[in-house]
Structure formats: C-alpha cells, structure tokens
Design brief:
With 449 residues, this protein is mostly helical. It has two domains: 161 residues, SecY subunit domain (Preprotein translocase SecY subunit); 234 residues, SecY subunit domain (Preprotein translocase SecY subunit, Orthogonal Bundle), CATH 1.10.3370.10. It is built from 18 helices and five strands.
C-alpha cells in the first residue's frame, strides 16, 4: 500500500509538472543562465601564456590552488574572466554581516525591512568591487613572477597593461556572476550563488574521475584503496543527507483561548530546529577567506622571497596550518551565522504574543534562555560535524593524492544545494496544485449559483 501511494504521489507530481508552465520557464531560465556561466569560464584574460600557466598548475596539481580551481569550475586554471568566481561577493557578505553586529548604522538598516535589505545588498556589491580589485591586483602581480621550465614568462604583455586589463576583466567577470546569481534567484529555481558554485564543482567530476582511474592504472592507487574511497564517499553522502534532514523538535503548548465568539481548544505544536541550521555557509565562507592569501602565496612562491615560499608550503593542502585555519573559520562562521539566522529573544517574544509556551518553562526571559541553551548545543554539534566532514577527507586526499572533488566540502555543497533545489521544485509544484484546486472550487461555486 505504501509503495502504491508513493507511485500515485509521483504520478501526481509528474502530471502537475507537465502542466506547470511557470515552473518550466523558471527551470529553462536556470539552465540557460548556468550555460552562460560555463561559457564564461573559457574566456581567458588578455596577455596570458596558456602553456606556462598549464605547466605551473600541473606542478601544483595536488596543492591548494587545485581546490580553488575546483570551486571556480576550472576558470582559475585557465585564468579566465571568471577566475575568482563569486568568492569576492561572499567575502563582502561576510564583512557586511559582521558589520551589522558592531556598526550602528548597519544595525539600523537591518531593522528597516525590505528597504534596508536593498541598501545592504547595494553596499555589499560596492565592497565586492573593491575586494575584486585587490584580489585582481594580487593575482596579476603573482602571475608576473611565474615562469616556465624554459624561462618563458606567464605574461606576454607589458606589466602596466596586464595589471590594468586583469583588474578590469576580473571585476567585470565577478560582477557579471553576481548579477547572474541574482537573476537565477529571482527568475529561476534555487539560490543562484550556491548553484553557480555547485555547477563549477560538478563540471570537474568527469575529469576528477578520469584522474583517479589513471592513478589506479599507473599503480599509484591500488584497487582496495580505490574501493575504500568510494565507500567513504557514499558514507559521507548518507551522513550529509541524514544530518541535514535531522531536527530537534521542541513541543509548544497553546492553552484554551477565545477568538471572537469561538472557544479554541488547547492544542500543541512543535518548533523545529535543524541540527545544522547554517547549511553550506561556513565551509564556503571559510574557503572564501582563505582564497586571497593562499592564491597570492602560491603564485608568488616560485620566484618570490624565501618567506613567501615558506608560507606557501605551510598553507599547502593537508598541512597543519591550513587545516587549523580552515577548522577555526568553520567553527567561527557556524557560531556566527547561527546567531544571525536564529534569535532566541525574538522567538520567545513571538511565542508569548501568540499564547504559546514550552512545558515547564515560563514564557519570556526563561523561554529565551532555554532556547539559547538548546541552540548553543545544536550549534556545537553542527560545528563538530562540519569540521570532521571537511577536514578528515582533506587529510586522506592529501595523503593519497586523489582530486579534491571527492572531498567532504565538495560533497556537502553538492548534496545540500541539490536537496534545496529539489525542495524548491516541489514547493512550486505544490503551489501550482493549490492554485488549481482554488480555481476548481471557484468554478464549482459559480455553477451552484
């Protein structure tokens, strides 16, 4: 009976999808926008010597540059106009959100509703331009110091022209991606920024699988290890799905109350708190903040001073300093972002206004303290889960030498964004079915009249 019901529900969804023209338009717009993004990852910066650049990336294939190249969908390796992807915008969002906690003017804007949100978004985009200029200048200077085995430079034009063109190209490419992400969010399906990062990761999967099998064929990776890595990837996917769907339900009681002339009976509901309320935000934020210093250090390491070479080695993939910074930033952003998305005082006040209370807890301040107690412990569990998920596979990847796309961070992003995308598609289908029922009810009323 259960399987029959599931088949009927699936059939209903398929019939609803075939009639949901608005959803089809949104899906097509999303697909076309992502195709435009992928095409942009093949437009190179002017003055780049592609051969020297490819040689440099081959030498550092297992380094941290490979990880950020994966986030950009290969654009960093090809040094295209989309080389920085959407990371500068994420960095700007981090700074603005941190500023909302300490700058009074930004705190006031946060409370102004939609108008304040538009102003904050505007400030974030302005800050994105400045961050991209700084990162673009750093990349240009770093590329000027890169040379191939035969002594050829990675830059084929004059220094001044190359720096100017690189900054302009990267600023234009980054702001175009930001605009494209906004268009996907408004006119497509899913979160545009997350989908752009996810598509970049998915685009590297075939190449990563080919590299892994090539390592196995060359004898550098034996079949038992390959089988263990496949099992680890499947186990990580299962854990991610399990934890991301897990909830801590707090029972809310509502006493008898009178609404107009009617007496409402006592009832109970629940307040769902996700085990990981931050989703993929902490790993993405942590990766974004590590991008600039690591990229510049790696690009400047070959012909730079000794301290830059030492820093590049310390920030190498799988090195203790890199892992420590990555874990600390994940912990920080998990705690910080949870405080942004969930306010115990506001939740307790809303429950009090609607007459709800937690059994054994007094409304108001005591309820806020209890909710803060629960969310703090859930946040610590989420932080440990994210750190283990992102750090432990990175250590194995650094030791074995397989591509980054099989790591915990990438699996978390792909699985989480895919789940959110499917949820939004289902929400559109449910909304379409609800509208259809309302139209049918209106037609029945007209016929009865």
């Amino acid at each position: 009976m259960a399987s029959l019901a599931e088949k009927m529900a699936a059939g209903m969804d398929m019939s609803a999808f075939s009639k949901a023209e608005e959803l089809k338009k949104r899906l097509w717009f999303t697909v076309m926008a992502l195709i435009v993004f992928r095409l942009g990852t093949f437009i190179p910066l002017p003055g780049i010597n592609a051969g020297v650049l490819a040689e440099m990336f081959n030498r550092q294939q297992g380094g941290i540059l490979g990880m950020f190249n994966m986030f950009s969908g290969g654009a960093l390796e090809r040094m295209t106009i989309f080389a920085l992807n959407i990371m500068p915008y994420i960095s700007a969002s981090i700074i603005i959100q941190l500023g909302q906690s300490v700058v009074p003017s930004l705190m006031a804007l946060k409370k102004e509703g939609e108008a304040g949100h538009r102003k904050i978004t505007h400030y974030t985009k302005i800050l994105t331009v400045f961050i991209t200029i700084i990162q673009g200048y750093g990349i240009a200077v770093g590329l000027e110091s890169v040379s191939g085995a035969n002594g050829a430079s990675a830059v084929m034009i004059s220094s001044t022209v190359f720096r100017f063109s690189t900054i302009v190209s990267l600023v234009g490419g980054t702001m175009f991606i930001v605009w494209l992400g906004d268009q996907i969010t408004q006119r497509g399906v899913g979160n545009g920024s997350s989908l752009i990062i996810t598509v970049g990761i998915i685009a590297n999967i075939p190449n990563a699988m080919a590299q892994t099998f090539e390592l196995s064929r060359a004898g550098e990776l034996n079949w038992p290890t390959l089988f263990m890595l496949a099992c680890m990837a499947l186990a990580l996917i299962y854990i991610i799905v399990f934890v991301e769907r897990a909830q801590r339900k707090i029972i809310i009681q509502y006493p008898k109350r009178q609404m107009g002339m009617r007496m409402m009976a006592a009832e109970s509901s629940h307040l769902p708190l996700k085990i990981n309320p931050t989703g993929v935000i902490p790993p993405i934020f942590a990766s974004s903040l590590l991008l600039l210093p690591i990229t510049i250090a790696n690009l400047s390491a070959e012909n730079g001073p000794s301290w830059v070479q030492t820093l590049s080695q310390l920030l190498g993939h799988g090195q203790p300093l890199y892992l420590g910074l990555y874990a600390f930033l994940i912990l920080f952003f998990t705690l910080f972002y949870t405080s942004v998305v969930f306010n115990p005082e506001d939740t307790a006040e809303n429950l009090k206004k609607h007459g709800g209370f937690i059994a054994g807890i007094r409304p108001g301040k005591n309820t806020a303290e209890y909710l803060d107690y629960v969310i703090t412990r859930l946040t610590m569990v989420a932080a440990i889960y994210l750190i283990c998920l992102c750090i432990l596979p990175e250590i194995l990847i650094a030791k074995v030498g397989i591509p980054f796309v099989l790591g915990g961070t990438t699996l978390l992003i792909v699985v989480q964004v895919t789940m959110d995308f499917v949820t939004q598609v289902q929400s559109h289908l449910i909304a379409y079915q609800y509208e259809g029922l309302l139209k049918k009810a209106a037609l029945v009323k007209k016929k009865n009249r």
